Amino acid sequence: MDTLERLTSARIIPVVVVDDVAHAVPLARALVAGGIPVAEVTFRTAAAPDVIRAMAQEVPEILVGAGTVLNAGQVDQAADAGAQFIVSPGFLPSVVERAKERGLIVVPGAVTPSEIMAALEAGLSIVKFFPANVYGGVDAIAALGAPFGGVKFVPTGGVSSANLGEYLALPNVIAVGGTWMVKPALIRAGDFVAVENLSREAVASIAN
């Protein structure tokens, strides 16, 4: 199974904010144990590259990517640390090109028709729809499916256990990004049992 298949087969992509690298490995193990072997480690903290490196080296079962990537330099930092995919909140050609140069899957943010067309022109067919709850959510993604039949979406922002099923029921949604199973407070408290349990509940909810 290649990176893209692993990314989309999980159906849920935990969006992780980690301040302390000591939490990286137990967090990754909790996600794997809970049935979600994916982590999008956001570049919202200075620890992000070290967290990616620790997860990639110590927990090979997990697919580790970098999120909130805003420039080509961060793409390089993520790639050097062992990230296997890049997620950006918006579409920036320099980020997309550098990710391609580094051999990484890249999922840029695109919510308007113009942004989606720019992503298509760059050779991409998967985009992040962020923040989903602000830009129309399920209804907006369903409507965009008509003119953009070949585009697949990863909605993030406002996705929760309550609406997870609605998003994943859309034929043009291949996965969702979320934080409810990896809330920063849980991570800071070292409550990885809760992370595992919430992850398991999320997986069970989409299996039914």
Question: What's the structural blueprint in terms of helices and strands?
Answer:
Blueprint (H helix, E strand, L loop, with lengths): L2 H7 L2 E5 L7 H10 L4 E5 L5 H11 L4 E5 L4 H10 L3 E3 L5 H9 L3 E3 L5 H9 L4 E4 L7 H8 L7 E4 L8 H5 L7 E3 L5 H6 L2 H16 L1
Parallel strand pairs: 1-2, 1-8, 2-3, 3-4, 4-5, 6-7
Quick gist of this model?
Keywords: Carbohydrate metabolism, Lyase, Schiff base. Helix content is 44%, strand content 15%.
CATH topology: TIM Barrel
Strand proportion, as a percent range, falls in 15-25%
Assembly level? single chain
Q: What string, H for helix and E for strand, traces the elements in order?
A: HEHEHEHEHEHEHEHEHH
Question: Biggest sheet, open or closed, and with what strands and sense?
Answer: 6 strands, parallel
According to DSSP, the number of beta strands is 8
Q: Runs with pLDDT <50, length 5+?
A: none
Please identify, by name, the CATH architecture. Answer: Alpha-Beta Barrel
What would CATH call the homologous superfamily? Aldolase class I
Query: Strand order, biggest sheet?
Result: 5-4-3-2-1-8
Which structural class should the secondary elements be placed in? Answer: alpha/beta
- The number of helical elements comes to 10
Count of folded domains: 1
Calculate the mean pLDDT score and round it. Answer: 97
**Estimated helix fraction:** 40-55%
Return Rg in Å.
16 Å
